[in-house]
Structure to design on (96 residues):
């Protein structure tokens, strides 16, 4: 299925959480938290301003981002969980 977000929304695929700590301890499934880092899969055209102009988004498909723990709406696309977020819910872009 192909999906295209509207306006200033983006679709994000969460990155896998760490299963072990740096010291080698294995984290059980019950203690894991949802990751707050993801990769942008698709972006909308931009935010429509009050004067009708469209401001393009600062992020683009392929960017790795950080977002809030409870941000966005969870959806499933072809059996894979994704999030739909507004651009203003993005906390940071991870530079590599």
């Amino acid at each position: 299925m192909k999906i295209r977000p509207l306006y200033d929304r983006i679709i994000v695929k969460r990155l896998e959480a760490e299963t072990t700590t740096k010291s080698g301890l294995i984290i059980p499934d019950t203690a894991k938290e949802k990751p707050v880092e993801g990769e942008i899969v698709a972006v909308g055209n931009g935010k429509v301003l009050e004067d009708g102009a469209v401001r393009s988004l600062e992020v683009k498909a392929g960017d790795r981002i950080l977002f809030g723990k409870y941000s966005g709406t969870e959806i499933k696309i072809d059996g894979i969980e994704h999030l739909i977020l507004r651009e203003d819910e993005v906390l940071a872009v991870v530079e590599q």
Q: What stands out?
A: Strands lie at 9-14, 37-43, 47-48, 54-55, 64-67, 73-77, 80-86, 90-94. The chain has no helices and eight strands. The mean pLDDT is 82.
